[in-house]
Amino acid sequence: MRSIFCFIALFLSLQLSAQDGKRIISLAQSITNNIYLLGAQNQIVGCTKFCLIAENDNIPIVADALNVNIEKLVSLRPDIVITTELTSPRIIAAIQKMGIHTIQLPKIDNFKELCNQLKQMGEVCNKQEIAIQYIKESNHRLSKLPKPALGKKIFMELGHNPLFAVLSNSFMDDYITFIGGENIFNNLTSGIISKETVLVRNPDMIVIVSMGEMGKQSIDSWKNYNSLKAVQNKQLFVLDANKACTPTPVSFVDVLEDLIKQLKGGLSK
Fold first, then answer.
1. pLDDT digits over 81-135, tens only?
2. How far apart are CA 154 and CA 150, in angstroms?
3. Is 76 within 8 Å of 25 (Cβ atoms)?
4. Does domain 16-141 have CATH number 3.40.605.10?
5. Which of 100, 93, 94 is nearest to 76 (CA)?
6. Dihedral sign of CA atoms 167, 118, 34, 102 in order
7. CATH for the stretch 146-265
8. Each residue of 182-193: pLDDT tens digit?
9. What's residue 65's pLDDT?
10. In 3D, which of 260, 264, 265, 219 has the Cα closest to residue 238?
11. Cβ contacts of residue 165 below 8 Å, gap of 6+?
C-alpha cells in the first residue's frame, strides 16, 4: 500500500513539474508582453526593468536598456533566455558560454510577423493553442476595422527632440496603412528628420507616439505651425507609446481601434 502512495506522490510531483513549464528569462518588453498574454507569466524568472506588465509580480530584474547582469541571470537558473536583435552579440555569447540556451528573435517589420512571434512564444511556453486562437481573433478584428484615413497623408512622430518619424517596412507603419493612410516618409531610410521637412510634405494628420504630458507638449508645439493642414483641420492625435511600440497582436488591434476612435471624435478639437 505504501508503495502505491509513493508512486502516486511521485506521479503528481512530475505532473506539477511539467505544468510549471520552462524557466524563462525575457530580455525585451515585447517578449514579456507576449508571455503574459499567453497566461504563461509563471514561467518567467527574470526580465528587464522596462517590462512594465511584470512590475507588480516581483519578478527579478536582470537587465536595463544596455546592460545585462550575467551573474544574476545565471543565479536564476533559466532553461532559456529569450531576446531580440537589440541585445548585443557580446552579451548573447556570454550567456551561451554559461551553457544556457538562448533564442534571439528577429526584428518585427509588420503585423504578420507580430503574429509569428506570438506563435513562437506559444511553442516555447507550451501554449500553442492559445497563441493560435489569439492570432485568429486579432486577424478577424483587423478585417472588420474601418479606414477613416483613406487617402490621407500621415506623419507619425516617434520622438520630438530629435524629431523622429515612423518609416515604411515597420510594424508601426501598419498603423498608418491599416486605416487607409499614406506615410509621408515612406521613401526614407533614416527616421531622423527636420520640422522643415514635415512642413514641406504638409501632412493631413499628425499622430504622435508618446507618453503622458510629452504627447500634449508635442501637439502644442505643432500647433504653432498654422500652415500645416493637420493643424488647420485639428487633426493631431496621440498614441500611448507603451502600447503602440511593444504590442502583441491583440494590443496592436487595440491601438488601431483607439486611433480610429480618436480620428472619428477629433481628439484635438
1. 999 999 999 999 999 999 999 999 999 999 999 999 999 999 999 999 999 999 9
2. 10
3. yes
4. no
5. 100
6. negative
7. 3.40.50.1980
8. 999 999 888 999
9. 75
10. 219
11. 155, 156, 157, 158, 185, 188, 191, 193
